[in-house]
Fold this sequence. Notes:
Blueprint: H1 2-8, E1 14-18, H2 24-30, E2 38-42, H3 51-58, E3 63-67, E4 79-84, H4 95-102, E5 106-109, H5 112-122, E6 127-128, E7 145-151, H6 165-177, E8 184-190, H7 196-205, E9 211-215, H8 219-228, E10 231-234, H9 254-261, E11 265-269, H10 274-277, E12 285-287, H11 290-302, H12 304-319, H13 325-333
Parallel strand pairs: 1-2, 3-4, 4-5, 5-6, 7-8, 7-10, 8-9, 10-11, 11-12
Helix pairs in contact: 1-13, 9-12
Amino acid sequence: MLAMAQCLSSDHEVVIFWDTPSDFEEITQRFQISLSHVTLAKNIFSRKVGLLERLFATKEYDVIIFLSDGSVPFVLSKKLLLHVQQPLHIRRNSLKDTIKLNRVYKIFCNSQYTKSFIQKQLAREVFVLYPPVALYPKDTEKENIILHVGRFRVKNVGVGDYKKQEVMVNAFKKMCEQGLRGWKFVLAVSIKDDDREKFEELRKAAAGLPIEFLVNKNNRELWELYNKAKIYWHASGYGENLEQHPEYAEHFGISTVEAMGAGAVPVVIHAGGQKEIVTNGKNGMLWRTLGELQKKTLQLMDDSVLLTNMSQAARKRAETFAGNRFCQEVKNLIV
C-alpha cells in the first residue's frame, strides 16, 4: 500500500489514513520508501470513527484504495478500489454487504493464487497486481549457503510454525546425518518478543549443526545474504490443509523473488504464490514432500552446471517483478 502511495504521489495528491504517525518514519526507512509528497491523515476507517464522520471525510476524494480484511467500507468517494492480499472471505451476507460491493469500482489482489479464491466468491472480475520487488544484486562470490528469509511464527494466523522454519531445520539436519558436508543453512528471521522463547527452543535444537540464525536484519544486510547464497528454501503451507485454509500458504513470495534476483536458486514448496514465481526445472525447483526437497537440493549441489544455468534463469525471472512495472500497473488500475 505504501508503494502504491509513492507511485501515485508523482502525479496526484495522495493522503494516507494512518493510526500512529509516530511510527511512520520508521516504517518508510525500513522499506526504503520515499513518501515526502504524501500527506498523513487521521484513520477514518478505524472502529473509533463513526459512519457519518467517515462519509463526510471521504466525499472529497476522487479515489480511495482500501486494504480489505474481508470487509467493504461505505464511502462517498467517486471510486473505491478494494485490495486483497490473501485468500479470505469477503463479507456478503446481507443486503447491506451487497450494496457496498456493488459500489466497488475494482478489486485487485497480489497474486493469481489469491485472486482464484476471491473471484470464485464474488463472481466478478478481479485484477492481479503483483507486489513491487526492489532488486539489489551485485557480483559477489557465491558460498555454499542455503538461505531462508521470513518471519518466525505468526500466532495470529491460526497456525504455529507458519513459515515452517522448524520443518526446514529438521530437513537440513537429516541431510547432514546422511552425509552432507560443506554446506550451511542460514535462516534470517524477524522475531517479536512474544515469540522469543519458541525461537530459542529451535536454536537450541539446531546446536552443533552448520545452521546459523540471523535475527531482525535490515534490508541491506539481507541483500548481502541473498548475494552470497546459492540456494533458497521456502516451505509455507507444508503439511497444512490448504483447501480449508488457503491462507496458510504463501500468498505471493517476495523473499523468493528477491533471492532469485540475487541468483539464489529457489527450491520451494509447490503451493500458493510460489507456483507463479518458479517454473520447475527451469528457474528453480518445486517440491511437495520433504524427500523431494532434499533430493532436488542435492541435485543442485552435485551439478554445478545445472546450478549455474538455473541461477541465471532465476535472475531473469525475478526481473519481471521489478522495475517500473508496478507503478504503471497501479496508475492503470485507477483509470
